[in-house]
Amino acid sequence: MHFSIPDTEEFSDESGSTYMGYNIHINGVFHCTVRYRQLHNLHDQLKKEYGANNLPVFPPKKLLPLSSSQLEERRAMLEKYIQSVGQDPQLVNTDLFNGFLLSAQQETSCEKNQEVPLVVFLMNGYKIALNVMTTERSDQVLEKACHQLGLPSEYVYYFSLFLIKREEDGDITILRKLQDFESPYISQKSIQGVHRVVLRKSYWDPGYDLELMSNQVALNMLYVQTVADVERGWVLSSKETKQQLASLQARGAKKEYLELARTLKYYGFLQFRPCLCDYPRPGSRVLVSAGNRELNLRVRLAEGQDMREGSFKVTRMRCWRITTLHNNGENSTGGSSSSSAAPGQSQLELSFEYLMSKDKLQWITISSEQAILMSVCLQAMVDELLLKKTGMKRKQPGDRIRKGSWSYMKRDGSSQLISVSQSASSDGISTKTNSTNGDVKSPSKTEFSTSSMRKISEKLSGVSLKSSSKQTPHPFVENDAFEGIGDEDL
Question: Residue 266: CB partners within 8 Å, gap ≥ 6?
């Protein structure tokens, strides 16, 4: 996940005193506003649970009021801290860290803990009407939606909840996958415009289809999504094949429809909005799709020419990073900015270092408002590859039986004690209040902060690992599947 604290806000408490709030963005989207002392309290609890040696350095307290430059320094240090925690699998997946983020989202939104209606959609517009608590997490809402559809529990986590937006041209844009540390109800409500929470499959290996197609409910869910993707043009097919698919759809032959669709180009791929790339040449306007363990780029080099295709396997990506640039009309892809980012606004880039041949690594940069979602997809592909390699089973409802308690410090200094002794689907929360004392302009470029890079496979010992001159030498998101490639993959 990509954490950032791009800016701060000044707030006043009930006594009239002012304090600085730090706006936390996750995967490019505003999530919550917290004070310094809230993050400090979180750090103390993480330190107690996991040890100081397993945590990044936390910005120290200051006795005197901070100057403007000191406030900016603290913002940058807090951003670096939360990015480091967010890139540590041991920490980012803990109930303590996720509970903090969920509580902070609830406090920032001022939503009370109450039952509310929430509609989850399938890709064909079918509505799943639910009653949820405002504080229920994405995994809890997912389980409720799947249960209402009658999907067996072993198939629930082959699917996920996503936020989508319908564009003016009638197409849809998938904004992001909803994470377990957020409330779908609050996240949807906090975004302006018409957005939907949709239920889509959330795996990349089409081989999993065969297992799901043995169950009628799962088969129906795959069928609904595939029909929508075909109609949207995300799955490519000839005129003759489209007629065959239409005939199968008219007869209600869902399994046969899927079997034919699975043979088509870009089946199971997630397609992004048109964007810019420096491959095959600077300023190329491309259509990016993610699926089947690869990023696929389609580009038309000149008017009237056929589309050219570039396929980049995730196993051959040594590392990647997300960069936020201040947009002045030009970008590192070598062309003018995409229409999604007007001059003066920030612009996102995904850069990955790719093993083009046995002795050649090359940086490729994509400039897109969906760059973070692309990065999330890449990481999900890697996670799935490692899951299959180790033989581990996919997460199941009820797997996370949690016990223990931790406290969430609110902005006013009071604490909410969160006690958990039940399964993840029925958390128990109690609140105690006590007084504590504490305190607490975006730079043009911010990047992921990660742990140090691991050594490359010996077969690449002679390859130059210097970054492109257009990139700055900052840490990357390393690819844990990269070193597993063999000579046959080259």
Answer: 234, 235, 236, 289, 291, 296
Q: How far apart are CA 388 and CA 393, in angstroms?
A: 8
Tokens of residue 359, six digits: 């002795």
Task: Give the pair of three-digit tokens for residue 185.
Answer: 């109800």
Q: pLDDT digit string (tens) for 255-281?
A: 999 999 999 999 999 999 999 999 989
Q: How far is Cα 481 from Cα 316, in angstroms, rounded to an integer?
A: 8
Confidence of residue 149 (pLDDT cuts 50, 70, 90): very high
**What is the spatial distance between Cα 434 and Cα 418, in angstroms, rounded to a whole number?**
14
Residues in Cβ contact with 332 at an 8 Å cutoff, skipping those fewer than 6 apart: 278, 325, 349, 365, 367, 470, 471
Q: How far apart are alpha carbons 195 and 80 in whole angstroms?
A: 31
How far is it, in rounded angstroms, from Cα 105 to Cα 109? 6
Task: Identify which has the larger pLDDT, 429 or 162.
Answer: 162
Q: Greater confidence, 446 or 475?
A: 475
Q: Give the model's pLDDT for residue 13.
A: 72
pTM, two decimals, is 0.80
**Angle formed at CA 396 by CA 185 and CA 155, multiple of 5 degrees:** 85
Is the separation of the CB atoms in 340 and 325 below 8 Å? no
CB 361 within 8 A of CB 463: yes
Residue that is written with structure tokens 């992921």 in the block: 448
